[in-house]
Amino acid sequence: MEITFDGGKVVSAYSHGHVIRTDQPLDNGGGNTAPAPFDLFLASIGTCAGIYVKSFCDNRKIPTDNIRIIQTTEFDNETGLPVDITIDIKLPPDFPEKYKDSVINVAELCKVKKSIMHPPVFKVKSSKI
Fold first, then answer.
1. Which residues lie across from 87 on neighbouring strands?
2. Are residue 47 and residue 103 in the same domain, yes or no?
């Protein structure tokens, strides 16, 4: 993954043929033209759980049109870091009862969540081009 600086507070990541742009909100000196990096981090948790739920349902031919995932985050007032993230899978009334626990279990398999629960070692260095 390569990260570039694209003017103002825009920072982009190039990954597997995709460009992932980030920006800062107006009140933080950015142009608010893209999500902030931390917003993408939080979104990666919910969308990761979502793809596991989607795959589970697709494999069983269960429609996902009316399934919603609501993610809420509580933050520590002093550090501003998240202390509680809740993923609430909203299932329609006609969702098969026998799969309700299973859909929670598959959301728990999310690789992003697992990475947070077992964090990697981070190394930050600099080198000349």
1. 71
2. yes
Hey, how many other C-beta atoms are within 10 angstroms of the C-beta on 52?
Answer: 19
Instruction: Write the burial class of residue 36 (CB in 10 Å: 0-12 exposed, 13-18 middle, 19+ buried).
Output: middle
Question: What residues have CB less than 8 Å from 127, skipping those under 6 apart?
Answer: none
Q: Which two tokens stand for residue 38?
A: 């931390």
Q: Which secondary structure element, helix H or strand E, spans residue 121, and what is its range?
A: none
Q: What is the pLDDT of residues 17-73, one digit of tens each?
A: 999 999 999 999 999 999 999 999 999 999 999 999 999 999 999 999 999 999 999
Residues 93 and 110 in one domain: yes
Total structural domains within the chain: 2
Instruction: Give helix 37-59 / helix 100-107 axis angle, nearest 10°.
Output: 140
Q: What pLDDT, on a 0 to 100 scale, did the predictor assign at position 51? A: 98
Supply the range of the domain harboring residue 25. Answer: 1-34
Q: Does a structural domain hold residue 122?
A: no
Q: What value does the mean pLDDT take over residues 88-98? A: 97
Output the pTM of the full model.
0.89
